[in-house]
Design a protein that fits this description.
Strand 2 and strand 3 form a beta hairpin. With 132 residues, the chain is α+β, with helices and mostly antiparallel strands. Helix content is 54%, strand content 15%.
Length: 132
């Protein structure tokens, strides 16, 4: 049985405040703690993603979060973006975007904000390519 994060962690103020800001600043925290680049941490994350996607897959009922093409997603994110979604990998090398998660208004606002940032970055990149 899937549970929502607020069902498991009931401290809403912490989830919507400290937790999000900690996640947003994790790269800086790694650099501050190690006094080195966070590149190894990123490389480790890439290795874990590739292992889950191409080698082990996910267990029954398990999802992983990974940035993939948004085309045809069930969350209303515009097609043509690389966006982080919950995925199931039942057959190594083939993922499906997991659906059925309840998205409350707070989460939906964060999703739309991320989508808007990506669309803005896409517009800048397209503008640069057109002017080259």
């Amino acid at each position: 049985v899937r549970k929502t994060i607020p069902e498991v962690i009931t401290d809403t103020a912490w989830l919507r405040g400290s937790f999000i800001s900690t996640i947003q600043q994790r790269g800086k925290a790694i650099i501050d703690a190690r006094k080195l680049s966070s590149a190894m941490s990123a490389a480790n994350a890439i290795g874990n993603h590739l292992r889950s996607w191409l080698v082990t897959g996910t267990k029954e009922g398990e999802t992983i979060s990974m940035g993939v093409w948004s085309n045809g997603n069930p969350y209303g994110v515009r097609d043509g973006l690389i966006f982080s979604f919950p995925l199931e990998v039942k057959t190594p090398g083939r993922y499906t975007i997991a659906s059925g998660f309840e998205i409350d208004s707070f989460a939906n606002t964060k999703i739309r904000s991320s989508e808007a940032e990506l669309l803005e970055e896409l517009a800048v990149a397209e503008s640069i390519l057109r002017s080259s």
